[in-house]
Amino acid sequence: MSEPFKGVINVDIRDSTPDWSPFEPPKAPDGAPNVIYIVLDDVGFSAMSSYGGPIETPNIDRIVDAGVRYTQFHTTALCSPTRSCLLTGRNHTRNSMACITEAATGFPNASGTIPPENGMLSEILGERGWNTYMVGKWHLCPTDEMNLAAPRRNWPTGRGFERWYGFLGAETNQWYPDLVYDNHMVDQPRTPEEGYHLTDDITDKALEFVRDAKAIAPDKPFFLYYSPGACHAPHHAPKEWIDKFKGRFDMGYEAMREETLANQKKLGIVPKDTELPELNPIGTPDTRKGPKGQPFPMLDTVRPWDSLNDDEKRLFARMAEVYAGFLAHADYNIGRLLDYLELTGELDNTMIVVVSDNGASGEGGPNGSVNEMKFANGVPDDLSQNLAMIDELGGPLTYNHYPTGWAMAFNTPFKMWKRYEFNGGTSDPCIISWPAGTKARGEVRDQYYHAIDLVPTVLDVLGIESPETIKGYTQSPIDGVSMRSSFDDASAPSGRQTQFYSMLGSRSIWHEGWKAVTDHPVIAGWSNFNDDVWELYHVDVDRSELNNLAEENPDKLRELVNLWFAEAGANIALPLDDRSPVEIFATPRPQLAGPRDRYVYFPGTAPVSEWQGVNVKNRSFVISAIVDLPSAGAQGVLFSHGTRFGGHALYVKDNRLHYVNNYVGALEQLVVGTEDVPTGENLILAASFEKEGQDPQACTGTVSLFHGETKVGEAKIKTQLGAYAIAGAGIYVGRNPGEVVTDDYPGESPYTFTGGTLHEVSVNVSGEPYLDIERHAEMLLKSQ
Question: What gap in Å lies between CA 401 and CA 385, rounded to an integer?
Fold first, then answer.
């Protein structure tokens, strides 16, 4: 709210007195610190060496050495919900983020849209005189708004960030990302062959944003939300960074857990008597069924290392090396930020917070994957094919994820992983430094805190009260408490007595050092929540949740279960949703436009997301391009949809029409016209697919090429039943920048159509839109 005008207004300006105060932009107090959030993805409690893990992160260690590490900092166990807490200070269900935005259900606790009465830190600081920047992963926007026809109300620029550069969804290809710059999609600035990687790119942009403003107002502080994709799948990293860890994981994940736990005890990260839970602490398909005989989810099991053959051990170890290289490369880029701050004299007066948004990920399943799109399309991985790609892991030719055994290792000493409300899902690193305002250096803190506590901590440090209104919306109470008292006082009470948790059917409650938790498997479709068995742990002394005290302390357990329901009511946590991925994905959600029989696309436009574009899955279709070709020699892409991991494209090469269908990256099916393309105006170049059959893994049929009504090519092909990309692949007309469908294109990236004029491309489809719920559900699971 602006200041009232205090000048004098008369008829003549000469008799009037101006007052600029209501019109001036806000100004932060002199000497106010900068604030940087570094939000890592799926890193887990113990991946980094500063938490006892095997991966050296020397630049994060610089932050550790300048501040404090928390050993009992907690998250929600999933990406979008935690990120909403980090920015609003409210519990995730109050933010309408009971799950990731892609799994919104249309209830107040799970709409995928953070209500405006839960203002973000960026909105608060922007109105108090800080510049506000965001780079990297957002994942706080519903899927129907991740496109250029949607409002920008839930994009970073709609929630207080003045500038942003990154990707909107759960994940993206680190070599060929889906990039958004401020309010529009953009192409990446260079190719992997030219040295491109997304983490390098977002760091360049972060430094650019800061420098741009500092050149004008060098004393103006900033808030930077730095959110690399590391280490969410796909695990992509430069080979030289991966090779730094060659041989480091050959011991296997069980031995790695033992080594990590020993390091943690030496560092004081966990109590000296902490022990490790078993590899499959809540069951396997062989040992456990649901209350009505439902199967235990195979995805959430671990294969013991000694049960693997030599080839599997070699492959699994390389997958861990790739993950380590991904994190180490991100750490290098964090070092670039620190170097800039040090060079400019800003480092001491910058409050830096480093967190992971949840525990290490179990979405790779017991076997991991070289190409997740096979799994998502119901096509089984083949060990021999995966071994053939072992040297390509982490590079542009793979879309990879490690097996669940490494998730357990990188969450040492805890049970389970991301998605679960055991500590393996919720207990994560938190490092805070502010050299100008604190005395502690390199110390450990054991106070219990949660992601909701960071916003009030930052406001406390900056001396800012939470505003009563933001953009006219009366603000709801903040749930978090300030952590500032613990910065310099290891014995300071945390101010937090209670914290509730709920995620995909998994539930827990922490209260004054005790924790009640169910072992209900997530997204298993078991329901029957009243039949859940609650376990009881004294986590102040039993951090790994090994000693179940439910039978010994029934009164304490009953107290905590009742408290969970009270907290769930206060935090709008119901209804609970443990439905299977199939059921979750089948939930009707808003769409900007309904399905139609004909889709028209034009050159020179931004890519259209797979989720908003034409659906050709398991149905006949015709792709028709209208072109003017004044002479022979035209070449380039007419239409492309997807990537090398699944997609199709129509293009001209060597004066012939070409159509390629890349089946889940495993089979490239190419049809080439038998005649040269004609010259003239308003020519139609087309590919027509006629569906003839379907099996569990593919749709089969005949594709034909046409110049107008003249058939010039034909072949039998199969097309995939699931989507082309987990995050949704783009439709391009007249070019195919970034990740290509095929390497057969003529010319160089972005393979623009030249030598003629491309007017439009239409895609006609017949029959009902096809949606393979199971395959789409598998991708929903992978995107978490």
Answer: 15
